């Protein structure tokens, strides 16, 4: 089923149950814009439709794309319109005058020294760099974009490139920074399911790779290999699959879609592990308890043992182990290495038992003493068709039942595949009937509380985001906004990523003891997990019209939607009686649907409303077969499309790690992901027919497919060089140094477009939030200036010769001309001067000239005395 990922992004906020819902909200994103008119497509602007909804500031601010939710902004093909939306008094800067002589070695060297000292002075005691933001632009998103890991990677790399300035100070600073990143990785404090997670991993890898290349300490190199392997695994889990969903999300869908078949279900070894702490998070996962009757007890594992390896992967702490265990299935044989005090380490294979509970899927009420009464059936209940609503259950497998608690006690012992004999009283005459039911595997369940995506605390657990609904398991147990959930059943919760995967092991209908901390006090309550919505597939492609209503763009012939009566152009007016005047209401109603239930859709078709009823069919997810994989890395988990720039940056970092760090098996692991990323970038290459047919890379697929913003080569100069460089290094699609030189020549011609917006703080149409992109200047942004210069310089290095000499001169002159009087670069208030200064040092770190050496005795350099390293320069 096709649907724009933008729909879920608009509403914002992560709920675990919505992360496990139907297929509908997990597909290709398209930028909202008026739909093209054709004979085959219903006109979404027909007068019979409801008025365009007016979104509140709160709704618009809930999405980083809120600025796009304005049908009155005008066509996006012409970027030179929508005047009056720029900051007061702002006007484009003219192109820098680069005709003068090169700055002297002393000037450049002095600029580097001052910038290096500025960055070093910002380092925290724990070795990290972080940024306190004060800007008006998307403060929450920007804060995630430049979190401590990303900022530390950015600054650490800048310092390493300028180690000659002051090796006695920079060397230890880089070592502390690397240790900070290493510790955060081992503690599991790099969550995947947050905005800009890709930059944490990309920048962290880039920095640690550089540290590896600059040390001869083999122990430290081994540690860096281990950490970078983990970061590579994290980055690969963020990779999207054919612009639809992260590959781990596709895997989750397949798992859920097969849960009701006769397949193996989640299992465990039966060990309870000590959560990692600041004092103990290395050296193996320590066993604190053994579950009675478990495989671990049967094979003699003991409290105090440390698991140091599982399935061939090193285990440093409980998080490492639990992130593997969530994937284990009953019947599987797993290899475990154990360290026991006073004994020799040992390794053993363990056959996991089938422990997943069975499922009858009955909704019952206590009745009046004769036995529990059937009042409904849960999705995919094996009892549906055998029992009827109103049946009174009086016997289960020969055991008399009079209370609902007695039935639940028997039900809790049922395993998938068990044959259960139920006897019931039916109808007014209480006729005795019997039925033989084969128990299914329990569906996945959840407790229905939301989770804060960003948790900067060092404690284990996850923080509840908002009060749960009063009738939910979490609400009934008293869980509240801000509580930190630390345990679910016998498993400590070790962060958002762990919880996301662990949720797949929670069985509906099973009671769990949940523990949490509130204002320092530990609390607990029993919660019975409820089934999560199961993925369904109507074989419809759904998107948003220019009134921001969900409508059917395409009905797949022969699919469930086609058979039910959906037509191209149908607009969703209501779902199960809930009006859906805009995508906001539609998304809430759609994500509440589940396969196996009957749903009613009220559709607007032409001048009339049409009601469609059907039982939602279960989705079946399979591998792509011969389909070419195209998938990269996006800024937001919900984005659904991979921007070319972030994908190319991740590729370059991964290729460097693979090439230099000698991590066993990494080449095999990265082969397909890198190919699919390269394929994604290649599909984003276009010819700008408005500018002489020059090749260029658009921002994302929606730009290319729909003829939208970002087609003009003048707006692509921040990313063209890095995209071409990534493909050249991959050796794919006939990209070569020759094509790279053409991209560099193009950049030289249009570089002034980056100068034009380099000092623009934000673009802020009234009531629509802010954006760093200038919609009046081909969507260029201030930070494109630094990225564009840096990656073009890297590309020129790849070409060498005259090409590099030319770009080396341009970048050196440009970076010196744009330096602020305080020695920093691009002090954009929404991202902070540290980021701009570090990127400025990145650029200078790739230049060549006499300034790269000759720093002399570090003790004689200006550091904190306030003296200027070069004469005052005009305000830039």
Describe what this molecule looks like in 3D.
With 876 residues, the protein is of the alpha+beta class. It folds into five domains: 2-30 and 35-70 and 534-607, PDZ domain (Pdz3 Domain), CATH 2.30.42.10; 105-243 and 630-856, Glycosyltransferase (Alpha/alpha barrel); 267-351, Pdz3 Domain (Roll), CATH 2.30.42.10; 358-441, PDZ domain (Pdz3 Domain, Roll); 445-531, Pdz3 Domain (Roll), CATH 2.30.42.10. Helices cover 32% and strands 17% of the residues. The chain has 25 helices and 34 strands. The strands form eleven sheets. Strands 4, 5, 6, 7, 8 and 9 form a six-stranded antiparallel β-sheet that branches. Strands 19, 20, 21, 22 and 23 form a five-stranded antiparallel β-sheet that branches. The two termini are 52 Å apart.
In short:
This protein is of the alpha+beta class and 876 residues long. The protein is 32% helix and 17% strand.
Please outline the helices and strands.
Layout: E1 2-3, H1 6-11, H2 57-61, H3 105-121, H4 139-145, H5 148-161, H6 167-186, H7 197-213, H8 218-238, E2 240-241, E3 245-246, H9 247-257, E4 271-273, E5 285-290, H10 295-298, E6 306-310, E7 313-314, H11 318-325, E8 333-339, E9 346-351, E10 358-359, E11 362-365, E12 373-377, E13 392-396, E14 399-400, H12 404-411, E15 419-426, E16 431-438, E17 440-441, E18 445-446, E19 462-463, H13 473-477, E20 484-488, E21 491-492, H14 496-502, E22 511-518, E23 521-528, E24 530-531, E25 540-544, E26 550-555, H15 560-564, E27 571-575, E28 578-579, H16 583-591, E29 598-605, E30 608-615, H17 644-660, H18 666-683, E31 685-688, E32 694-697, H19 701-705, H20 720-730, H21 737-750, H22 752-757, E33 773-774, E34 780-781, H23 782-799, H24 801-817, H25 833-846
Parallel strand pairs: 1-25
Antiparallel strand pairs: 2-3, 4-5, 5-6, 6-7, 6-8, 8-9, 10-17, 11-12, 13-14, 13-15, 15-16, 18-24, 19-20, 20-21, 20-22, 22-23, 25-26, 27-28, 27-29, 29-30, 31-32, 33-34
